[in-house]
Amino acid sequence: MTPRRDASQHCETMRLLWIVCVCALAGCGGDDGEAALECSRGDRWGTYLLEYSERSGDCGPLPDALSRLDDEDAMGDGCELDAPDRWSADSCRLERAYTCEDPGIGVTGTFVAVTEQRDGSGARLTGLLTVRLRDADGRVLCSGTYDVTATRQ
Fold it and tell me: 48 to each of 31, 34, 37, 62, 96, how far by Cα in Å?
């Protein structure tokens, strides 16, 4: 593979990574460690500014983006849950594991997200996302861990 192909593939890989990160937040929930927070799965709706901060790994930074989070069960094209979502008893915290495939670029991503609702309205969501991207031959292209913050606009 030529260096130009590697750079092109990396750009496509990052595009896929950004697209599927939205899936992690589609059903966000959580516990802020302070007074008891009342949460409902229906609290997470509207347009959110998604901000990512890379903790570790070699996938590189993700750009901030606006996204709609209106359907907690929605998954992006080519994405499916690896197991049923695990909600906390109070519906404030969500654990989601999913895989997304883009046959057009030959990349498959596996993701695990733990997200928390930080206020009673669902306007602020935070979480942690782990990522592993593989090429069509199963070789790891990159892996990483990101802090994620979503703020309703």
Answer: 19, 24, 20, 15, 19
Six token digits for residue 119: 């206020």
The pLDDT of residue 35 is 59
DSSP state of 42: G
Per-residue pLDDT tens over the stretch 61-83? 988 989 887 765 677 789 999 99
Nearest Cα to 54, choosing from 42, 62, 66, 43?
A: 62
User: Exposed, middle or buried, 114 (CB in 10 Å: 0-12/13-18/19+)?
Assistant: buried
Burial class for 5, CB neighbours closer than 10 Å (0-12, 13-18, 19+): exposed
pLDDT over threshold 90, residue 99: yes
Q: Taking the CB of residue 57, how many other CB atoms lie within 10 A of it?
A: 14
Q: Where are the domains positioned within the chain?
A: 3-152
First to last CA, the chain: 43
pLDDT at 4: 37
